[in-house]
Amino acid sequence: MILAQGLRKSFGQFEAVKGIDVDVRRGEAFGFLGPNGAGKSSTMRMVAAVSPVSGGTLRILGMDPASDGPQIRSRIGVCPQEDTLDLEITVRDNLFVYGRYFGLPRKEVRERVDELLEFVQLTEKAGSMVEDLSGGMKRRLTIARSLINRPEILLLDEPTTGLDPQARHVVWDRLFRLKQQGVTLVLTTHYMDEAEQLCDRLVVMDNGLIVAEGSPLSLIAEHSTREVAELRFGVGDNEAAADKVADLADRVEVLPDRLLLYTADGEETVAKVHERGLEPVATLVRRATLEDVFLRLTGRTLVD
Ligand SMILES: Nc1ncnc2c1ncn2[C@@H]1O[C@H](COP(=O)(O)OP(=O)(O)OP(=O)(O)O)[C@@H](O)[C@H]1O
């Protein structure tokens, strides 16, 4: 569906994407995970055929965005990071006007709009002005709008940024359904839980480069132990404690507010920490996540 080889994007002297290889297959949910500024949006804009490629090759549905932009854009859907809805017209009219841009006949657009309102659970809000919607409703409307042309690929740039947990789950649920319907999903996110929930495969980006790729589970298996014991000591005591427990874990990370011990059995490790006479203020044993993968690969947390 999407094939990039050595793909680059420059803004003047600054290189935002420094040569990445990506291969997105039909029907999968593919993610770009990385912190702010990693180059995710720049990549998405090239894939959406709205930003020219600076180097390397890019094919979308087998076509070249440099020469086949309109054909590509007619077969993909784009849900941008910022809601770009028209605030001064109704929910229904936002979809209707957008559908007409695609040159669809009125009757067909009307039917499609009803279908999409139902799909994103906004039928009851059809006559409301957009400015009266909650953040989650606006995001669902933007998703509905991106689906008006029945796209084969849906590009979503940070689909749940700024939404509260409940609204995020509603968006995730709709995206799952789209995937079940066979739509290929490509999304960017800096939330590792979102990447784990939604993505079959993903690439981890940092500083314009791909630092790892695979399924969430395979990335965790490759770059982390199964469990992580998080220990909190008093302010400034984490470094000193790290030296005393280093041999208890496969790997130790010292973060400003806590110590992470990577180990096969977190509870057992915590017990051994106590046996050594150390008394953390708080302990937590959890399974490893993509956040741990990112930390391992870059030395930073995703939210730094
Ligand atoms: N139009 C532009 N002109 C100059 N620099 C840009 C432009 N667009 C992006 N950049 C820079 O390119 C880098 C990558 O930005 P990009 O938006 O692709 O990152 P991102 O991973 O999507 O992060 P975010 O989550 O913040 O959108 C950043 O340093 C950004 O400042």
Could you please describe the fold and organization of this structure?
- With 304 residues, this protein is α/β, with parallel strands linked by helices.
- It has 2 domains: 2-214, P-loop containing nucleotide triphosphate hydrolases (Rossmann fold, 3-Layer(aba) Sandwich); 221-298, Alpha-Beta Plaits.
- 38% of the residues lie in helices and 26% in strands.
- The protein has 11 helices and 13 strands.
- The protein has helices spanning 40-47, 65-75, 91-101, 106-119, 135-146, 165-180, 192-198, 216-223, 238-245, 266-275, 290-298, and strands at residues 2-11, 14-24, 29-33, 55-60, 76-79, 153-157, 184-189, 201-206, 209-214, 227-232, 251-254, 259-263, 282-287.
- It has a 6-stranded mixed beta sheet with strand order 5-6-7-3-8-9, sandwiched between helices.
- It starts with a strand and ends in a 6-residue tail after the last helix.
- The site of adenosine-5'-triphosphate has 13 residues, from strand 2 and helix 1.
- It is a peripheral membrane protein.
- GO terms for molecular function: ATP binding.
Q: Biggest sheet, strands in spatial order?
A: 5-6-7-3-8-9
Give the integer mean of the pLDDT values: 92
Task: Please identify the structural class as seen in this structure.
Answer: alpha/beta
Q: How far do the termini sit from each other?
A: 33 Å
Query: What form results from the Cα inertia axes?
Result: globular
Residues in helix, %: 25-40%
Number of strands: 13
Major sheet attributes: 6 strands, mixed
The low-confidence parts are none
| Number of domain modules | 2
CATH fold description of the largest domain: Rossmann fold
At the first level of CATH, the class of the largest domain is: Alpha Beta
CATH-defined superfamily of the largest domain? P-loop containing nucleotide triphosphate hydrolases
Give the oligomeric state of the chains in this entry, treating copies of one chain as homo and distinct chains as hetero: single chain
**How many whole angstroms does the radius of gyration measure?**
22 Å
Compounds present?
Answer: adenosine-5'-triphosphate
Could you say what the CATH architecture of the largest domain is? 3-Layer(aba) Sandwich
